[in-house]
Amino acid sequence: MAKKKPASTPEPDDAVIQVRGVTAVIGETPVLAKVSFKAREGQAVKLLGANGAGKTTLLRVLAGTLKPATGTALVGGYPADEKDPSFRALVTALIGPPPLAHNLTLSEHFALMGLSWGLSTEEAIGRGGRVLDAFGVGALASRFPHELSSGQQQMAALALTLTRPADIILLDEPEQRLDADRVGVLAALLEEERDDGATLVVASHSVALREALTGPTVTLTEVRTSHAD
Ligand SMILES: Nc1ncnc2c1ncn2[C@@H]1O[C@H](COP(=O)(O)OP(=O)(O)OP(=O)(O)O)[C@@H](O)[C@H]1O
């Protein structure tokens, strides 16, 4: 007869992302209602919720830029903390526009990003350029950021985010300002990353993008604030 496991033995768990009872507060304002979910390697978690439900806030917690008020967020086995280089080495994120230098071309941004994460200049320019090519805007690689339309800026930001290798990809409304065809291209690029073993968390208002991604949906509900009479 099999021995009964002691109660303290942890169950084997292959989750890359484990969010347990996480809430968030900014100042004294609750901004994220309690949420728990897990994601395994090669899954794309789709974050769903009305405006203000806390999707960006949860992504900030996962990116380690906002500490949860309660609960734990383990990402790649680490408590999410942007100050921890081991954690940062695993995670690439696009949450709001990335800081860009006005006097560096997109290719030069890719090279700089690659240099920071152990790629050769050639590899980095190749990886960023591949994303631009997929969007059909490879010629933009030699432009400065201020020479781009708003949709092109979004494609450049996505290319920069995907230039560096990462096990975990966090994206906040990556479809914003992209036309319908480009949303399809984006879905294909993200599915390719997922097929290669990346774990993604994507907040999106695009039904088309959410339907194209393979993985569970996590629906956030707005924080209920009680008003004193
Ligand atoms: N700096 C801040 N100070 C106070 N409250 C904030 C701050 N930033 C965000 N909030 C609040 O936190 C809540 C969650 O915002 P968040 O941006 O995470 O929502 P969201 O689900 O991403 O919304 P959307 O779909 O509109 O992008 C909202 O009620 C918002 O007003």
Automatic annotation (TrEMBL):
Domain ABC transporter as annotated: residue spans: 17-225
Protein name as annotated: ABC transporter ATP-binding protein
GO cellular component, one term: plasma membrane
Compartments it resides in: Cell membrane
One example of a Gene Ontology biological process annotation: response to antibiotic
Organism for this UniProt entry: Demequina capsici
Keyword Nucleotide-binding: yes
SUPFAM superfamilies: P-loop containing nucleoside triphosphate hydrolases
Keywords from the named record: Antibiotic resistance, ATP-binding, Nucleotide-binding, Transport
Residue stretches in coiled coil: none
InterPro entries for the chain: AAA+_ATPase (IPR003593), ABC_transporter-like_ATP-bd (IPR003439), ABC_transporter-like_CS (IPR017871), ABC_transporter_ATP-binding (IPR050763), P-loop_NTPase (IPR027417)
Membrane topology: Peripheral membrane protein
Matching PROSITE patterns: ABC_TRANSPORTER_1 (PS00211), ABC_TRANSPORTER_2 (PS50893)
Family designation: Belongs to the ABC transporter superfamily.
Alphabetized GO MF terms: ATP binding; ATP hydrolysis activity
